[in-house]
Amino acid sequence: MSSFTQASKVVLKVGTSTLTYENGKLNLHCMELLCKVISDLQNSGKQVVLVSSGAVGVGMGKLKILERPVETAKKQAIAAVGQCELMFMYDKFFSEYNQTVAQVLLTADDVYQPESRVNVENTFTELLRMEIIPIVNENDTVSIAELEGVSHFGDNDSLSAIVADLVGAEALVILTDIDGLYDGNPRVDPEAKRIPYVEEITPEIEALAGEPGTNRGTGGMYTKVQAAKFANERGISCCVMSGANPNDLYTLFGGGQIGTVFSGKTER
Questions:
Q1: DSSP run (H or E) holding 9
Q2: CA angle (129, 54, 164) in 5-degree steps
Q3: For residues 175 and 18, is the Cβ–Cβ distance under 8 A?
Q4: Distance from C-alpha of 91 to C-alpha of 50, rounded to nearest angstrom
Q5: Lower CB density within 10 Å: C or N end of the chain?
């Protein structure tokens, strides 16, 4: 657990299913508590980057749209509405704990083109130096790839691992609607057991990840394991854990066992 207790720079990823209720509306209690805990981690001396899904889900809730639309242009419009609402609420909650936030919307070109990648890295470096919490999402109103399911990022799980590499983080935490990787599907198998620690992501581990997702999000355990694999290959430890109670982050960063930890073997 030392990789988490000693980490000075951390990327947290929160999914749509954690931020919203089944009807698509914001889970204000969970969101406010998450902002409080992140603010406390920031106060303790850690530099925190938050990768947040939820633009489409929140937009659907605000516009009272029950089913995720299939038309790309409509999803773009919904994402634009939802991203505005999402950042408004983040700014409100973080401000209550004297934290300043910044919105960073990325496309694949921003990350993979050498010149723009340097610009992105410089932006993150300066934001963190100024003790500002960057809040990152894919720019769905410009890049339609994720909305169409063909994003170069894959989804925000993969994006969070890429951001962790970009900023030189020692640890990546993916908050989701399940408390880790299981040796079976816990939604249908009551005998399935959580795997607390994965030293190496083998094909067998990848096979345990199962099928993606929920109606409001785009990912599943498979994408989280792939994100962990990307991070581990770059020496970044990753924990996949439930986001239902953000106070559980104190357990993780305090050295306790929670979720499933994927160990980054190599030193940065």
A1: strand 9-14
A2: 35
A3: yes
A4: 13
A5: C
What predicted TM-score, i.e. pTM, was given to this entire model? 0.91
Do 157 and 213 touch, CB atoms closer than 8 A? no
Residue 134, H or E segment: strand 133-138
Dist CA 18 CA 178 (whole Å): 10
CA atoms within 13 A on the CB side of 55: 26
Reported as a single tens digit per residue, the pLDDT across 28-75 is 999 999 999 999 999 999 999 999 998 988 999 889 898 888 898 998
Which amino acid is residue 262, in one-letter code? F
For residues 55 and 77, is the Cβ–Cβ distance under 8 A? no
**Nearest 10 degrees: Cα torsion 42, 246, 238, 121:** -40
Q: Is it the case that residue 152 has pLDDT exceeding 60?
A: no
Q: What is the dihedral of CA 150, 156, 157, 161, to 10 degrees?
A: 100
